[in-house]
UniProtKB/TrEMBL annotation:
Belongs to the FAD-binding oxidoreductase/transferase type 4 family. It comes from Paraburkholderia kururiensis. Residues 43-224 form the FAD-binding PCMH-type domain. It holds the Pfam family FAD_binding_4. InterPro entries: FAD-bd_oxidored_4_C, FAD-bd_PCMH, FAD-bd_PCMH-like_sf, FAD-bd_PCMH_sub1, FAD-bd_PCMH_sub2, FAD-linked_Oxase-like_C, FAD-oxidored/transferase_4, Oxid_FAD_bind_N. This is FAD-binding oxidoreductase. SUPFAM superfamilies: FAD-binding/transporter-associated domain-like, FAD-linked oxidases, C-terminal domain.
Length: 481
């Protein structure tokens, strides 16, 4: 960094200290390190400072200061993202703006079925506060103990309840946002109907902080279900799982809140690395579905519905075996199998991950065709396929062959396998990022598969809102001011 640049950076840091106090402007390496590496440890950047404001007004003041000094800001929540969207670049000229101190729950309104929260509130805390009010906040994902609602909104996170409740976007009624000019837009209205112009809320959800910084949100709540009943069903193929999904939706309708697909190899990995989590059936099956009903009437009603569903599925030959959880502990054990798949993958070694979506009707064909193509390109590769079948989202991951060095496998095959998978997703009219966002990981791949018109519209939006390109540059869409 030149002497002039160092002077400018020092001036910026001094101005930030005036706004939030010296203890909330981190510059020492041991203080900034936790903010500079992404959760998967794929990216490590550098930053001139880590800023931790306490409210929207301080965020706005920091943004105005960044504009004055031409310093790019990288918003960050719980730093649990999987696409490098909250990691600064390596230049050391960007500043990380952490929302962890924006952690107040401002209001819970049971009659309006809403909760108003600041961006730094951890997801699990929102779930707990909703339960205290006799309500359900249905967003649920593996990182809920550390991810923040601001990050969930910035990436439009999905999770296990999308089938019934939708992505984070569908759970949000209003936002408070600091614009790239340092102004505060307060859209915390909590309305289900508001046709007074452009839907600004949706502009910022899923934008990963590239168009402004979300500082608070009004989120929807739902009635607490009277009962939740969970089951595992064994099937012969993804095609059978699709037919079973249709049957379950016919029987249960909106009561069906979870429908998770797990291949046999996924559960083998879990059992290998977490032996207490045993395979749930006496014999092995190609696919296992975890499904859950949330019933507003009673557990007896839900269990009776489940039994009729399973009886029909077994008679029709869709399901080879099934087990219904008999207790809360057994239900949690079923979910633990699903949630430990990523952990088991990590224990097994490095792998090539894909968070993709295709139309639900095409999932079986997509898996068959893409599995075959990968087997031809990388003989012996092991497929770790699992995900939210009910909304078409698959975590379609590729593990190195047994006994093969994982680093060497990735070095040789990651790029060609990514292209093979993304080409297949594109042919099936899908998306290369379903719930993890683009970040810096997929920004160029997204531009490759989107039409020129779509990319041009995205760049026009970026230019209109952030003409100086100071909001999380290099993420979501490439843009030169």
């Amino acid at each position: 960094m030149s002497e002039a640049a160092e002077t400018a950076t020092s001036s910026f840091i001094a101005a930030c200290v005036e706004i939030v106090g010296a203890q909330h402007v981190l510059t020492e390496a041991h203080d900034t390190a936790p903010y500079l590496t992404d959760w998967r440890r794929r990216y490590t950047g550098a930053a001139c400072a880590v800023l931790t404001p306490a409210n929207a007004e301080e965020v706005a003041a920091l943004v105005r200061t960044a504009v004055e000094h031409r310093v790019a800001l990288v918003p960050q929540g719980g730093n649990t993202g999987l696409a490098g969207g909250a990691t600064p670049d390596a230049s050391g000229t960007q500043a990380v703006l952490s929302v962890k101190r924006l952690n107040r729950i401002r209001d819970v309104d049971p009659h309006n079925n809403t909760i108003t929260v600041e961006a730094g509130v951890v997801l699990a805390e929102i779930q707990a506060r909703a339960r205290e009010a006799g309500r359900l906040f249905p967003l649920s994902l593996a990182a809920e103990g550390s991810c923040t609602i601001g990050g969930n909104l910035a990436t439009n996170a999905g999770g296990t309840g999308v089938l019934r409740y939708g992505n984070t976007r569908e759970l949000c009624l209003g936002l408070e946002v600091v614009t790239p000019q340092g102004e505060i837009w307060s859209g915390l209205r909590g309305l289900r109907k508001d046709n007074t112009g452009y839907d600004l809320r949706d502009v910022f959800i899923g934008a990963e902080g590239t168009l402004g910084i979300i500082t608070a949100a009004v989120m929807k709540l739902h009635p607490l279900p009277a009962a939740r009943v969970t089951a595992l069903a064994a099937l012969a193929s993804p095609h059978a799982a699709l037919h079973f999904l249709a049957l379950a939706q016919r029987f249960a309708g909106p009561l069906l809140t979870g429908f998770e697909l797990m291949s046999d190899f996924c559960l083998q990995l879990v059992n290998r690395h977490f032996p207490p989590m045993r395979y749930p059936f006496e014999s092995r099956h190609a696919q296992v579905v975890l499904l859950e009903l949330s019933d507003s009437e009673s557990e007896e009603h839900a269990r009776g519905l489940f039994e009729r569903l399973m009886e029909t599925a077994l008679q029709d030959g869709l399901v080879e075996d099934a087990v219904v959880a008999e207790s809360l502990a057994q239900s949690q054990a079923f979910w633990n199998l699903r949630e430990h798949i990523p952990l088991a993958q990590a224990e097994e070694g490095l792998n090539i991950k894909h968070d993709i979506a295709v139309p639900i009707s095409r999932i079986g064909t997509f898996i068959e065709e893409t599995d075959a193509a990968i087997a031809g390109a990388a003989p012996g590769a092991r497929m770790v396929t699992f995900g939210h079948l009910g909304d078409g989202n698959l975590h379609y991951n590729v593990q190195a062959p047994e006994g093969v060095d994982a680093k060497a496998f990735l070095a040789q095959y990651q790029s060609p396998i990514n292209r093979l998978v993304y080409d297949s997703v594109h042919r099936h009219h899908g998306s290369i990022s379903a719930e993890h966002g683009l970040g810096q990981l997929k920004v160029d791949d997204a531009a490759h598969y989107k039409s020129e018109v779509e990319v041009r519209l995205m760049r026009a939006l970026k230019h209109a809102l952030d003409p100086l390109n100071l909001m999380n540059p290099g993420k979501v869409v490439r843009f030169n001011p």
